[in-house]
């Protein structure tokens, strides 16, 4: 038997994590670099963070912060805080939109395709009240007909890969989500990213990862799992338990953006990587945003960053006291030195907000 036949006879769970994450995958015929993706995160997954992530080796696909579909057609990419990108990231950047109706979503989808993004992601997961009140985000899961109308209209408008990110729904029963997954597939969605929590749950209870299996088994398009993946063994476990095609990582990507390169390419972080990250992130935020917004976004990130350290609250407080990026840089130089005591599993209690 040749080596390649032997290899094919191994089940994927016998492969190393990097081998599993590097198995070839195309979405609607467009290849992706690997199966570990950056989840969409408002206020965090902005142009400055994504530039840094690319410097640390990037990931298979990056999802933007959610962009209001109503605003997208008129946005000026040079000044918009969210609908903003570098041309060189378009080949692996999916733009997430949030909205309630085909009338809102279709013009946004048109622009996203015209600008050259890899794909479009429809947000059906966000359950913050401002979004749900407008019948957007997870609210669409309460009205499957409205959800399908949006998907249908967007699919008819664009040819680029179409993603839906969604949750279990508004009750624990996964059956409605399974049914919707099938309907999304029939409507022409190319890939699903599933976060197995109910909508009002603000990440306080653990995700029910068996529900990812239920969604995976319901459809034949790729399904990515998401939720509380922090350590490489948790990523392997999500792949094993659910059979999902890949994993989307959110908060941990803010704590350690090099984790994608660690898990897929064997990258080994240097001794001073935390200080380098903190300083470089400050520079990039300053480059893209006005001083007030840059500092605000920096402070938002510090909770995920500080969760890396045994004495994370103390470290975070140094950054929260900063009145300018110069103060931030001074705090990074003074408090983030090699040898700081790290937690292997970042302190989720710090960032389960
Ligand atoms: C600060 C923050 C902002 C988020 N914003 C979005 C968003 O804009 N769109 C979305 O679909 N999910 C959003 N999410 C949810 C994440 O994409 C992800 O589903 C969630 O954080 C669980 O994954 P994790 O445990 O890997 O962080 C956000 C999460 C956080 C913590």
Structural description of this entry:
With 353 residues, this protein is of the alpha/beta class. 44% of the residues lie in helices and 15% in strands. It is built from 16 helices and 10 strands. It has helices at residues 3-9, 17-21, 47-55, 102-115, 129-132, 144-157, 175-187, 210-218, 232-242, 251-255, 259-265, 273-288, 291-306, 312-320, 325-335, 348-351, and strands spanning 25-27, 30-32, 36-38, 62-68, 93-98, 119-124, 162-169, 191-198, 223-226, 246-249. It has an 8-stranded parallel beta sheet. A two-stranded antiparallel sheet has the order 1-2. Helix 12 (273-288) runs antiparallel to helix 15. The N and C termini lie far apart (53 Å). Residues 1-9 have low confidence and may be disordered. Bound molecules: flavin mononucleotide.
